[in-house]
Amino acid sequence: MQSVLNYLTQNQDRFVAELCDYLRFASVSAQPQHKKDLLACAKWLLAHCRKIGLDARLCPTAGHPIVIAKTRRANNSAKPHFMVYGHYDVQPPEPLDLWKSPPFEPRIVGKNLFARGSTDNKGQNFAHLKAVEAYIKTGTPLPCDLTFVLEGEEEVGSKNLSTFLKAHRQELACEAIVVSDTGMPAPQHPALTYALRGIIAFEITLHGPARDLHSGIFGGAVENPAMALSQLLAKVRDENGRVKIPGFYNGVAPLSKYEREQIRRYPLSDAGLKKLIGAPQLFGEKGFTATEQRSSRPTFEINGLTSGYQGEGSKTIVPSWARAKVTCRLVPNQKPAHVRKIVCAWLKKNCPPSVRMEISAGHGAEAYLVSPTSKPAQAALCALEKAFGTKPILMREGGSIPIVNEFKKVLGADTLLLGIGLPDDNAHSPNEKFNLDCFVNGQRMSAFLWKELTR
Amino acid sequence: MQSVLNYLTQNQDRFVAELCDYLRFASVSAQPQHKKDLLACAKWLLAHCRKIGLDARLCPTAGHPIVIAKTRRANNSAKPHFMVYGHYDVQPPEPLDLWKSPPFEPRIVGKNLFARGSTDNKGQNFAHLKAVEAYIKTGTPLPCDLTFVLEGEEEVGSKNLSTFLKAHRQELACEAIVVSDTGMPAPQHPALTYALRGIIAFEITLHGPARDLHSGIFGGAVENPAMALSQLLAKVRDENGRVKIPGFYNGVAPLSKYEREQIRRYPLSDAGLKKLIGAPQLFGEKGFTATEQRSSRPTFEINGLTSGYQGEGSKTIVPSWARAKVTCRLVPNQKPAHVRKIVCAWLKKNCPPSVRMEISAGHGAEAYLVSPTSKPAQAALCALEKAFGTKPILMREGGSIPIVNEFKKVLGADTLLLGIGLPDDNAHSPNEKFNLDCFVNGQRMSAFLWKELTR
To answer: Would you call A271 an interface residue with chain B, using a CB distance cutoff of 8 Å?
Structure first.
């Protein structure tokens, strides 16, 4: 193991130079004019994987190709098999005028490497490639077989990944998937994300009069849809921040003592969070800390309200309709279809007869959970601690990452989310960057991980 | 009296031709390019008033001139003095492509005269001029002195009328003002409008986080301003349609038995109203009929709601702020400043500490009431009945007409609102028209009115 770690230390300058080459491709999957840049990037990655000693191939899809790279395994290898997932496509760099240097001309300032895709996700997946290179080039036997799946459509919804997974179900069958595409709270706080929230989205529209009415001539004798909507939405949440729709919390498992202890270690105080969001005060479900509320509890969130006149000054109307856009964040064990059903039924039951309700359904995604006390999770925590030299944080993320549900569904395997991005990395924003200490420690974490996972 | 009525009958064709001349002026006060058309129209009106035997003059203002026309009175006339108010300016005719014939080329189809300004207000004020012409030309002594005040800025807010009234307070001192600029429910249902609702307008904004937040990362630990606004607005009205803000109904006089009987005569059934507005059902304050609710009861009306994302699909945010535009309709005895004060104080008291409230004040106007059992109101009802041959309706209007408050404030006199426009006259819309039966009966009503008022 020491020779692997030494190799990583000794070759750091070259690794950074190679990462810069990787970052020079404008592999913007959302923009058709960059199709050839995506192909060029995939081909460069293919060649690089081969150069470091992996068996690699390009798999065409209906969109951009997927790079598959595998450690060479003996026939009938009895070693456990793991998959590493990453993506070589990047977000659009616009607005360009906010970048301090061109997005596809990597620039190092102190400990930071600036470029589009540096943290999301090229830098993070490259760390795993460099760890496996160290094993191969030092002749250190890997305790497992590895397959890298590097796709080019993550930023446009991984539209062709599911088909690919299903077609290669046998080849990709594995113990677990490792994904470094999330974050850690600070350079000294490595983290394993073991849970994600799910989501359901929908739109409620209440229809009243056939058209906007003069509020002088008709006001008082007709329901105001904006008032009806306010009264309906108001009933959803009580003064303790709890959703009042019966059954909404069905199946939600209480946080274990262990999890609550771990969540308390998350390095952001209530005062720090309040400052970060700039609200008059924090507000959430009673009985839970702010970190628990935003990572481990379901919500009913109004994302937008629209009704009547919205311009300057006043317009004396009774609006014809009122609309709320809503998303509910879900936690493990809440089934999106079930929650959608009971929420919609409750809304319909509580809608007054003075308006006509229309509910249009949007997207949905399941929550995700890997038990933090499971063997792979504990192995990942050990690898993080050895690599970074400090005790890692066990995190739940409040957002959703649909591909992990896809992995579970198609391959039946859990995903370890071992992100090495920082909160100030500007993912999806101008001046995206990647911390080079995180790059080094990420390689070390990957090197330790395969040992810990097979212990 | 019979000779006056005969004169009106015998000269109807000429009156219509003269009204067409009046309507040919494109006296659009909102559009600067029509300044010369307004002046030309005022001069034509001046000449016409002189021709029918009135003492008339043009009074310049900071905007368009006011035409003053008076019956000739002996020195130290002991006759009571009444004022007739009207306006010769018109609404912009746009959109022009929706007109079936050009807006300033009057066209008669059956009983209707189509032209911009026909019902609002040239046709209506011209009826009063024709009645006084009949008195003068037949040598019938008028039982009162009359002053016509015909302004050119009603459609742009009568900005210079108040200054004019104050400067001519003595000359205009009168028993009452007569205005035909409202409506009647149907050709066979003449009406006296004896009350108008007042109004206050304001905007409530609730500020939460400093910017829109990711609902996955932060949702659950921060107040959603759209939810806070919904919960605040929901508290305003109970399930019986009553405003729950303490003191809101202070001073509101109950409707008398006589008024309620009169209101019941308004020829629009609940089914008819429901069909007219196209709502799933009628809804209003319990204990009042729909006609009472929309004419005689105060309201708290949300005119618009704005918060967060309003485009296609969904955007997973906690909005930074949420806003409601509100107008309250007020009834006689409710003081706008007082109602504004108690409503704002209540909103502030009920705003949760998780958001910051901002209330911006808009316009306000007092309600208006002439007792329907007062002598002038009863006289007007007699005149209407004699002119139209059917029992008139006693109406309250749900909207506001600010000039009547101005008349009361400056001249200390009540206004009789004797509108002869019909609901389908398309005032302010393309294909505005005026019913020629209403024109004839309006002249007769005016002729009878001076007798009844001085009986």
So the answer is: no
> B214 to chain A: which residues are within 8 Å by CB?
398-399
Residues B77 and B214 in one domain: no
Identify whether residues B8 and B49 lie together within a single domain. yes
Query: Does A141 lie in the same domain as A13?
Result: yes
Question: Which pLDDT value is given to residue A13?
Answer: 98
Give per-residue pLDDT as tens, A181-220. Answer: 999 999 999 999 999 999 999 999 999 999 999 999 999 9
Question: What is the extent of the structural domain holding B214?
Answer: 198-252+298-365
Please identify, among A349, A364, A379, the residue that sits at the C-terminal boundary of a domain: A364
The HSE-up count of residue A86 (CA atoms within 13 Å, CB side) is 26
CB contact under 8 A, A279 and B223: yes
Closest CA relative to residue B193, chosen from B184, B206, B201, B204: B184
Q: Are residues A159 and A224 in the same domain?
A: no
Q: Do A215 and B318 touch (CB under 8 A)?
A: no
Contacting residues of A for B319, CB less than 8 Å apart: 302-305
pLDDT at A157: 87
Q: Which strands sit side by side in the sheet containing A321-330, from one edge to the other?
A: A356-365, A198-207, A321-330, A301-308, B299-308, B321-330, B198-207, B356-365
Q: What is the DSSP string of A364-420?
A: EE--EE--TTSHHHHHHHHHHHHHHSSPPEEEEESS--HHHHHHHHHH--EEEE---
Q: How many angstroms separate the first and last alpha carbons of chain A?
A: 14
**Among candidates B180, B176, B81, B71, which has minimal Cα distance to B125?**
B180
Residue ranges in chain A modelled with pLDDT below 70: none
Is the CB of residue B234 less than 8 Å away from at least one CB of chain A?
Answer: yes
Judging by beta carbons within 10 Å of its beta carbon (0-12, 13-18, 19+), is residue A107 exposed, middle or buried? middle
**Phi then psi dihedrals of residue B110, to 5 deg:** 60, -125
How many domains does chain B divide into? 2
CA distance A24 to A27: 9
pLDDT of residue B157: 87
List chain A residues with CB under 8 Å of B199.
216, 316
pLDDT of the residue at B363: 85
Inter-chain CB proximity A234 and B235 less than 8 Å: yes
Q: What is the CATH number of the domain that holds B9?
A: 3.40.630.10
ipTM: 0.89
Residues 24-43 of B with CB under 8 A from A: none
Averaged in consecutive runs of 10 residues, what is the pLDDT profile of chain B (455 residues)?
Answer: 97 98 97 96 98 98 97 83 97 91 98 97 98 98 97 92 96 97 93 95 96 92 98 98 97 94 92 94 97 96 96 90 97 96 98 97 91 95 97 92 92 97 90 97 98 96
Nearest to A454 by CA among A189, A55, A171, A135: A135
Q: Which domain CATH number covers A213?
A: 3.30.70.360
Q: Which residues pair with B302 in a beta bridge?
A: B326
Model pLDDT, residue A315 = 87
- What pLDDT does residue A312 have? 86
Q: Report whether the peptide linkage leading into residue A121 is cis, meaning its omega lies within 30 degrees of zero.
A: yes
DSSP string spanning B61-114?
-SSS-EEEEE----TT--S-EEEEEEE--B-----GGG-SS-TTS-EEETTEEE
Q: How many CB atoms lie within 10 A of CB B43?
A: 14
Let me know if residue A134 belongs to a domain.
yes
The residue type of A39 is L
User: Would A117 be classed as within a structural domain?
Assistant: yes
Neighbours of B287 (CB within 10 A): 11
CA A439 to each of CA A420, B348, B419: distance values in angstroms, whole numbers, following the listed order: 7, 52, 81
The 8-class DSSP code of residue A172 comes to H
